[in-house]
Amino acid sequence: MVDGSAPLSDATPDVPTQPPGRSPGWTEDDLGKGKAVTKAAVEFYGPDRAKWLGPYSDGAVPTYLKGEYPGDYGWDTAGLSADPDTFAAYREAELMHARWAMLGALGCLVPELLANNGTPIAEPVWFKAGAQIFADGGLDYLGNPSLVHAQSIVATLITQVVLMGLVEGYRINGGPAGEGLDKNYPGEAFDPLGLADDPDTFAELKVKEIKNGRLAMVAMFGFFIQAIVTGEGPLKNLQDHLANPTVNNGFAFATKFAPGNL
After folding, report:
1. Mean pLDDT computed over 35-49
2. pTM recorded for the entire structure
3. What is the reported pLDDT for 22?
4. Of 44, 156, 219, 260, most Cβ neighbours within 10 A?
5. Of residues 55 and 176, which shows the higher confidence score?
6. What's residue 163's pLDDT?
7. How many CA atoms lie within 13 A of 168 on its CB side?
């Protein structure tokens, strides 16, 4: 039985010695060094991790996918991760997009949910809300002018570019609070709740983060398509579908774009 303090034994020669998380995570050079192995490392990383075809994954996983990164289930039919440097760059991009997608999906749902429960919000639908900045009264975040009140799209754009540029530059190049830290999982000052203190928990949380982030990216793509096709927000689309599933569904709307109906 492998636990958080068990040494690497001869029975588990191919298990990563530490739960990975930093790019590039564990490598073959790390194997068999006699360091502690965590339960999460055995379950989510290394050659014995769960794979995309389950028990039928033998021969279906490229040799370069070794379980170094969280959420590596051995699927890469396009060979995008064959080069290690490219793999590391793609993983960083995926992780950043995943985090933004989780925030974005939440931001798309919460205003509409609040409006449905009586909170006075001028425009709760996510793709329509930004247009309020062009109105005479400007845009009030969540309908409250004391939170964020914006009246100039140019000033808003400049502020966003400057702030995001500083944050991204700090993340990539480091700084007084981030010097020597991993740019994807910095921890320390960037982990005030101490979620990464336990290595076993940290290894598992990284897998949960990337899995939820991938789901959020798919959800945001669905929100985009819904907005184009129905002109409604995600909660309104859900309510309409539940009210009449046979009429309000993707197949019914798809027929509107058939060549004869355009």
Report:
1. 73
2. 0.78
3. 41
4. 44
5. 55
6. 92
7. 11
pLDDT digits (tens, 9 = 90+) for 225-243: 999 989 999 999 999 999 9
Listed residue (80, 81, 43) closest to 64, CA to CA: 81
Which of 101-104's residues contact partners 24+ apart within 8 Å by CB, and which partners?
101/213, 101/216, 101/217, 101/219, 101/220, 102/212, 102/213, 102/216, 104/216, 104/220
**6-12 mean pLDDT:** 37
Provide CB contacts within 8 A for 103, sequence distance 6+.
none
Non-local CB neighbours of 246 within 8 Å, separated by 6+ positions? 252
